[in-house]
Amino acid sequence: MIPWRRWHWSTWLVVAITGILYAVAWPTLFVTHSVPAALGPIVAALAAWPLLLVRINPLLGWAISAGSAVAIPIFFDRLPTWSYPWQVVHLIELLVLIVAVAWTRPLPVVVKVWLASTVLFFIAMPANADSGWAFGVSVIVFVALLVRWLVLSRRQVARLEEVSDLERARRTVLQERTRIARDLHDVVAHHMSMVVVSAQTAPYRHDGVPPGLQAEFETIAATGRQALNEIRGLLGVLRSDAELPELAPAPHVSDLPALFTSTQRVGVPLTWRIEGSTALVGELIGATAYRIVQECLANASRHAAGSPVTADVNITADGVGIEMHNRLTTPPSTPVVPGLGIAGMRERATAVGGVVAVHDDDGEFVVWAYLPYLPAVAPAG
C-alpha cells in the first residue's frame, strides 16, 4: 500500500472533490428525499464516495453507484418538490464513473456498462425526460470512446516515430562501423601486408644476413600474418554488408606514385604506369581509385609474394580506368583465405557508379576497374 505522503497530486484532487461533494450531498439529501437523520450520512456516502474509485477501479465505483441508484428510490421516497430519482451529486458522480469506464475498460465491458446505464436512466427518470437522458448517456459514452481512440492513435504514432528514430540511429551506427571496417582494411591491412612482405624478402634482398637476424625476420613475418588474421576477424564483426557503403575521401589518385614507390621499396616487383592528368579527377573518384589500387597491391603481396605485379592507371576526360596484373610464379605456402578486399573494391566502385571485374585463370590474377566522373576542372588551353 502506498503511504499517503507519496500519493500523486491527482489522487489528492479526487479525495478533495469527493469530500466537497459529500459535504454537499449530506445536507441536501433531506431536501430531495425522505431519509431518517441517522441514515443521512450513509445514504450521502453511497452517493458521493464511489468517486474515490475513479482512478483505482472505475468499474467497481460505477457498480456501487448504479446499485445505490437502484436502491435509494426503492427505500426512500422523493419529496414532492423534487422530480428526479437521485440527488444532483449522485447524478454527477454516476455520469463521471460512466465516462471513466468508457475511457479505461475494454470495449465489451464499456458496451455492457452503456446498456445497463441506458436502461437505468430510461426506467428511473421521469416520463417526460427518460428518453432524453438515455440518449445523453449514449452520447457521453460515444464521445468518451472517440476521444480515447484518438489519444491512443496519437500515442501509437508517437511510439512508431520513436521506433523509427531508434532505427535511424541504429543504421547510423552500423554505417559508421562499416566505414571504420573499410578504412581499417584499406589502411592497416595494406601496411601490415607491406611489413610482412618486407620481412619475408629481406634475407633475399640483402647479402650476408646472419641466421639470428634471418630468424628475427621470420618472426616478424609470422607475427604480421597473425595480426592480419586477427584484423580480418575484427572486420567481420564491425562490417555490415546490409549497409550502403559510405566513402570518406582521404588520399587521391595523385598519391599513387608514392604508393607504388613504397611498394617497390619493400621488395615487390612492381611495374606501374599512370597516363593522363590527375587534375581531372575529383576527390571522391580519386579516393576510390587509390583504395582500389592499394587493395590490389595488398592482395598481390599477401597471396602471391614475390610475383611480378603490373599496375596501369589510365585517366581520361570520362573516367579513371585501372588494370592490375599479377602472375603467381610459385604455389602459395598456405591456402588462400577469402577476405573482404574484393567485396570492398566492388562496393566502393558501385557507390560512385563504377564497376570492378576480377579474372583468375592459369595462375594470372587480373583486376579491371572503371570509375566514371564529371571533370572537376577543365584543363587550361
In short:
This protein has ten helices and five strands, in the order H-H-H-H-H-H-H-H-E-H-E-E-H-E-E.
The CATH H-level homologous superfamily of the largest domain:
Histidine kinase-like ATPase, C-terminal domain
- Note the main sheet: 5 strands, mixed
Portion in helices: 55-70%
Shape: rod-shaped
Distance from first to last alpha carbon: 89 Å
Provide the domain count: 2
Give a verbal description of the structure.
The protein is of the alpha+beta class. The protein has 2 domains: 125 residues, no CATH class; 192 residues, Histidine kinase-like ATPase, C-terminal domain (Heat Shock Protein 90), CATH 3.30.565. The protein is built from 10 helices and 5 strands, in the order H-H-H-H-H-H-H-H-E-H-E-E-H-E-E. The protein has a 5-stranded mixed beta sheet. The radius of gyration is 42 Å and the shape is rod-shaped. The C terminus is likely disordered.
Topology (SSEs and partners):
Blueprint: H1 9-32, H2 40-48, H3 58-75, H4 88-104, H5 107-124, H6 130-205, H7 211-238, H8 256-265, E1 270-275, H9 283-303, E2 309-315, E3 319-327, H10 341-351, E4 355-361, E5 364-372
Parallel strand pairs: 1-2
Antiparallel strand pairs: 2-3, 3-5, 4-5
